[in-house]
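Dear Dr. H.,

I hope your travels went smoothly. While you were away I took the liberty of generating a structure for the chain from your last submission, since the lab meeting agenda had it listed for discussion. I wanted you to have the full record in hand beforehand rather than looking at slides cold. The sequence, exactly as received, is reproduced here:
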Amino acid sequence: MRLLTTVTTRAEAQTLGDALYAHGVPTTIKETRDGDFAVWVQDEEHMEKAKAFLGRFDPDESRFAEMARKARAQKREEAKADERLRARTEKIRRQIEAKQSMRIGTITAGLIVICVIVFIVTGMGRKTEVVRLFTFVPMIPVRGGYVFGDVSTIWQGQPWRLLTPMFLHFGFLHILFNMWWLKDLGTAIERAFSARYLLTMVLVIAAFSHVLEFAMSGPTTFGGMSGVVYGLFAFIWIRGRLDPSFPYRMPQQLVTFMLIWLALGFTGWVGPIANWVHSGGLIAGAAWGVVSSGYLGRRRR
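The corresponding predicted structure, in token form, is as follows:
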């Protein structure tokens, strides 16, 4: 906030503040130590606009009094709208809490089933002859092993490779933790929106994170649902911060843990991890949360 001016009476400060509000400049009024009243502009971007308005302001002119009256009426309506929003949000939260024992989301369950089946048929990610069917870059058999082929195969008849790495898992802990997170985060989004919404989000996040991993690391055998998990986590985290009507809030301790784990992956201390898949998921999910929250539209108003 920045100080705009100081006046001697609360009535004048209130009239100025309300008139500025009607002019599109939110303000805050605070009493000073010497008994005057300071009018603060809440947003730095509005300061020049507020100064120009102050130069024309006359508390005794009827048009400014009328602006203040309309502003107070507008604030009352906005307060009622906020109260209705809070009531609706609370109702949604109660409904969701009442359904906590509800079965796992349909798409969430389907994704888990596919991951488990792929985990079994790939021998926990050890059967390269099967794993290669799911890798981002095709693996071509040669004498004594496999080599990576041309990534352009994706655009020339194998587009599913944009998505299939998310079904690969290497070891019990890998699939256990990913499926645990997917169960909770995926079901939450299905309950808040729909199965179709979750499916669209999963496909977009997976494709983006896989492309980013290839772009940054080249042809490697990466896989797992963790990129999608990071995307769903980031979506709920950001949407919950920017949209007061969103029924979920991500605990700060969990946010800290997920970000630290992401950073540790880049150090190499926790073993080989597809770090750019995680980062891509985080970026895509956070961007989805910002755009879908309506925050950018509210900022432009």
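Two observations you may find useful: The mean pLDDT is 88. DSSP finds eleven helices and five strands in the chain.

With kind regards,
E. W.
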